[in-house]
Design brief:
alpha+beta; 207 residues; single chain; Immunoglobulin-like; 2 domains
Amino acid sequence: MAQKKSTKATSKTTAQSDPAPASLDVAMKTFLATALVALPVGYFVGSSVGADTTDVKHSESSETHDSNDDHDHDDTTDAKMHAHEKLNVSGDAVPAIDSLEVTKDPKTGWNLHMHTSSFTFQPEKAGSEHTDGEGHAHLYIDDVKVTRLYGGDYYIGELDEGTHTVRVTLNTNDHRDYAVDDEVVAAEVIVVDDHHADDDTTDDHVH
């Protein structure tokens, strides 16, 4: 009888030591399952971050390109005379610039004086529809458009030392150049600014 009890005790001890490998097997399965889930999640997150980074770089590149385009356009505009469509007119009442003068201001800078005929300055209509004999003028200095003129007198201000071409065109309300036989109605003078001479030197050319 004592031997049978001993046998049962041994069997019970062995049964209690068997669960250890089962626990290890469960842990291994849990690890593998977690790894399988983590891999695609990591790939998806990495791809999203990469895509976002690419988009940011592309956006920065586009902004830089746009900024350069604007800069180049501005430089080109400043370097060349603005081109306007012509409006050829004919008849007895053709807008004309009868005289154009640029004289030294008593204090500083230069003054422009212009006389026109068959033409009425209409500053309030600038940009509106064309009306015969109405409009404004455009002022250019050395082939660069400076401003619009809404009358016959204008203070130019200081000029750099040297020789300058001051040109004025007559324009319609919708900014086209008045022209006769495809020749723009304009006048120009050559101004020599030496910052020292008391007498003004201008060469008047009327077209």
